[in-house]
Request: fold
Amino acid sequence: MLDLIVRNASFADGRRGFDVGVQAGRIAAVEPHLQADAGQTIDAGGLLLTPPFVDSHFHMDATLSVGLPRRNRSGTLLEGIALWGELKPHLTQEAIVERALAYCDWAVARGLLAIRSHVDVCDPRLLAVDALLEVKKTVAPYIDLQLVAFPQDGVYRSPGAMDLLKEALRRGVDVVGGIPHFERTMEDGRASVRALCEIAAAQGLLVDMHCDETDDPLSRHVETLAAETVRLGLQGRVVGSHLTSMHSMDNYHVSKLIPLMAEADLGAIANPFANMVLMGRHDTYPKRRGMTRVPELMAAGLTVALGQDSTMDPWYGLGSGDMLDVAHMAVHVAQMTGLDDMAACFAAVTDNAARLMHLEGYGLAPGCRADMVLLEAHDPVEAIRLRATRLKVIRRGKVIAETPMQRPSLALPGRRGDVSFLWVPAKP
Reply:
């Protein structure tokens, strides 16, 4: 007797008609026509069953703070940073926790069950660090929350930031962060990458740096990040987030840079919403998109993920925690509308993101944790097209959120009353 069986499910890799059996919070069997009984059975009806969505780049300490202390009137990155500086002295731990937990409720409803959040460590009180460590404990039964010690104002540019970062790690923050392009000089930026990677290597920690989030093609800190990764033996444990300067670099330099990144097994995280609206602000026309070279990085074999980055905060006043929205934006911005490309964007908010976070037991195979989402779609492309309804969200074999199928009702003569947006393309 199993605890749960999800029957007649389709998988992102194209397999159809499979059953998934769950026992004690783990997947016990994945096979067609599973011969077993269960305490609960869910008929997937041929729809898409996927591991949960993963957001590998977010700022939970700032989420839902839009309008505090005022709105970002220009919508620019620099005004957002200035606004956050104005807000920090007025933050309370209770308010950060309240907003973060509200966002986590949204995340669960969207099937988003793993988040890597950067947390600002440049406040001498480390208020946000303590708040998100509390949130991490609270949501542990239903969300894997990983925290990055992020020196928002520059680890050298902000007095005492290096000591505060080390203290945040001591208190239990998981990952070493950085922002080399925001240091006062290029040399300070390179030095910060070296120092922060050495801290991670000494403590056996992962690294995730905001890197070259600028339109300046001469911002090349990702080179240093890749070189330090190799020097310190951190291959597969280091991520460069944003990397938007690569959008502005000449092709010859990129032809040298991407192999260096591949040698370091460097992960890359693009953030389509933020990259699109914050980059290219000094351009007239033509106006640069700003997002890094996602298809080229994928083609070189790098693990590339997509992040939400911000939701209703000083930098981005929109968003809802929907990772399919993120994939949908990436498909368009990166011109990845080929079938394989769209499937790759789906993987970038599921499997790839989980790989960069080193999530244990992620997937739909025997032995994996029984964390799954049933979508109102037949395949990843349809899921992205529709930003598909999350019919069932399952954590450790238990349904923790569900949403009814979306069936608008029409009152048109001669037409059916209920409308389904599902559509199986005709075969040639």
User: Anything to note?
Assistant: The first strand starts at residue 2 and ends at 9. The mean pLDDT is 96. The chain has two domains: 2-50+363-402, 53-356.
